[in-house]
Every structure is written in structure tokens, then in C-alpha cells.
Amino acid sequence: MALSRELVIDESMIKFKGRSSLKQYMPRKPIKRGYKVWILANKNGYCQKFDIYTGKAEDAEKQLGARVIKQMLNGLENKEHIVYFDNFFNSTELLEDLKKKLIHACGTVNPSRKTLPVFKPDRKFEVFSNPSRIVAFKWRDKLSVYLLSNFHSPFGTTEVNRKEKNGTTTKVRCPQALSDYNAIMNFVDKFDQNLNLYKINRKSKKCWHRIFLYFLDAAVVNAFVLYKELHSPKISMKEFRRSVSQGLVADLVIKNKRKAYSYGETVAKKQFKPFIPLEIRHNQSSHQPERDSRRRCAKCSTSKQQVRTNWICSVCRVPHCLGANKTCFQDFHTFE
User: Fold this and answer.
1) Are 156 and 174 contacting, i.e. CB atoms less than 8 angstroms apart?
2) Which residues form the PiggyBac transposable element-derived protein domain (predicted)?
């Protein structure tokens, strides 16, 4: 699938509670324990690229967020893509580096980051721009939001709806960068939402089982997105998964089916009786009964009346009844 101009980089989680050195703990995520996966998604919730976080590398840079962004955007230089990410990744140095590669980027930022201007706590709206034209925004409605962008205008604003406590809505002005961020940042969330619909959720103590099932579901989600782009009418994820599963098992159906019998015709079941040569059966000196698992008697058990016994011949390995009123063991080793 061709890359859309707008892209989002965010993290996803593979649920796993077993023992693993790669397992991460994310207390603010719906899935708190598991494997962290970096996802590059487009506007349709299509996963373009992924990378499993395996811990700190030996030669890793100090800033993990910047390293992840550069790795995920490798090969997209000079194509003027617009990329959004959250404050875990964002920094002034990263946006300056992306701007040199003609990659537009925007995202929330931690106000305590170095090289950021000092924002005044009593101001509702502030804008700063450095010589590299990296614009920093602060906008406060109920809570303060901080953003960094390397392509938005510092003067661009728009109107958004704010819902009041009494249920009414009012128009308020906010930076265009914040409006674009809120409209686009849910691409990875859309991918996760489709992934969790009818997913293959099987418990396992083996970590690779969970990882395999996660990416199997991811492949189904990507196929579903492609199907919706190319076909109509639209179908639901449940219907798509059902059709995929039916298509996968279609070639496994046995072509040579058994002969169909007419109504009322009875078919006798095959009676299995073990074959032991007579010279072995009639050798009285070596046959001894011994206890074994409970099985059907080879002499007197039938399909209509099943008889089970715990006794088996030590030589023939055939189960037979043995008791005061049962002569199956003796009869088998005496008569033909």
C-alpha cells in the first residue's frame, strides 16, 4: 500500500505476563505488561512499519525517542511526509534534523525539555520560534498543552468546539497545529482498535506464541484495510475474518468423500479383533496375565455391549477378562 502523506508513529503493546527479559511495564497503558512495539501507521490504520523494542542497545544514543523516530523514518527523506508523534519522542533537536531531511513533523512536547523557551504559567496562549523556524506552542483550555512543529505557521489558528458542563458547545480558538495533531494522531489507535476486534487471544507461557499471534492479527488488519480500499460494498471485520478463515481451510477439505448411503440403509461397523498366530497363542508356558489400563476385552466385547477389563496378556498384549465367571483369557489361548 502506498504511503499517505500524513503518518503517525506511536507505541503498541503485546500482552504478556510471563517471564521475559524483554517485557515492559507501562502503567498508563490499557495493556500494562508485555512487549512494546513501535508502529508507523497511515490514515487508514494500516501498519506500514514496526519494530519490537528489545531494550537498550550497547551503542544506542542517549535519546531513545529520537533514535526510534529516525529508524522508523529511514528511507522517507526528501518526500515531504507529515509525521506526528507524542511527547515521548519530540524534541527541538529532532525536529531540526527532520527539517533538514524535508520531513515535516509535529507533536506534543514535555515543557521541561532542554532548548525549549520558558512558558509563563499565567498565559493561556504563547508562541515562540527559533532561528531554525521550529515553533513552540502553549495553549491552555482546562489544562496546558505544549507542542513543537517544524512546518506550522506561528500565526495559524482555528476554531474548535468545546463542550460546557451544561451540555452546550462554544467556539474557542486554538493553534492550527493542535487541531491537526488531534485529528491525525489516532492512526495507531485505529490500528489497535481493529487489531483487538475478534483477535486470536490465546494464553501461552511461551513468549513467541504471543508475538506470533499479534503479528498474525496485524496481517489480517492490514489485509482488511486493503480490502476496504479496493472493494465495495463494505464488510465488517467479523465477516472479513470469517471469509479469510474459510479460504485458508478450503484446500484442506477431503475431496474424496465417503459414499453417501440412502435413508434407512444400515452399515455394519467393522469389528476389530487382534490377530495373534496360533503357535504363540497356544504356548501355555509363557502367557501370564498382568494389570494394565482399562480396555475393551478382545474376546467378549461387542459394539452393542462393551466389556472392559484391566487384565492383559504379557506376551500377546491383548486385553481379556479374567475372573471367577470369566474364561476369556483361557479361551483365547486354548481354542481357535
Assistant:
1) no
2) 3-224
